[in-house]
Amino acid sequence: MNNKHLTKLVREGQYIAEVEIELIDAGEGWSPYLSIEDAYKLDDVRAALQHGDIRTAGKFGRVYTLTPLAV
Hints:
The termini are far apart. The longest helix has 15 residues, at 36-50. A hairpin with a 2-residue loop joins strand 1 (2-12) and strand 2 (15-25). The protein has 71 residues and is an alpha+beta fold. The protein has one domain (2-65). It is built from two helices and four strands.
């Protein structure tokens, strides 16, 4: 079984968060997959960003604001 660390981007509205997760590659079936804890972590970050709760989202990773550029 191989585990691989990965940065997942979660975008909601004007915010984006970088969240570190671990992919589990068992070499069979539905591999690679997330642990249930990492799946819940991504859900919690998405919910926090939807509610504008930057402090909670920041506990799980880096949070950025997106600014549109006029071209």
